[in-house]
Structure prediction request, 248 residues.
Amino acid sequence: MTVMELARALSLEPVCEAEPDREVTGGYTGDLLSWVMGRAQSGDAWITIMSNNNIIAVATLTDAALVILAEDVQPDPGVAELAERKGINLYRSPDSAFSLCGKVAALL
Amino acid sequence: MPAPLNFHFDIDGEDFSSAGEASVEMKKKLRQLGFPPDVIRRCSIAMYEGEINMVIHANGGSADVAVYPDKVVIVLEDHGPGIPNVELAMQEGYSTASEQIHNMGFGAGMGLPNMKRYTQSLEIETQVGVGTKLTMVVSV
Prediction:
């Protein structure tokens, strides 16, 4: 399933659609960046409530397929532009992290 | 052994929001050089943790990456406060980071443990009040 297909299926709001045709192969959720860094896999949909610039570095380094900001979290100022520059797919959703995990797992 | 390719990065200690830039840059270079994804991943994690530590604790520092055909050697050096108790700092979950740092998603106490986990060797030279030098080797 591609990032765009997942985004449509979950009614995600795009913040930055840098590479919508990318394949999503798994999922991960977490907010402690070191934890995510060490465990998220390439191709994952990463669900988090962290909203600062550093999520873009973590998404880049883990090679996550997309980042989903859960619980209606707004990205901090400048995060959308940084995602654009680094080519990171970034979305947001009013759903809880728990709910999003269930939905992503069911779709993959 | 052939001469390595060397890359030098200065880690800015002032700008927390750009932390990780050097790791991202190194990742790009390793990818261009055609290293396997697993090697790139281990180098990226180890370097990112080091970079974040230098920004949190040491007001920045430097990273030197030497790339050999069979290994990547990452040397991180700072002139920060040093690590008073290395054994304690190596324990998962132990952190001296501030509340503000925790709120940004850091300070989980996973930095040094992650560096150890994802590298073949981690050597720590540290002196309180002088600084810290980490040498990590990732085998290809």
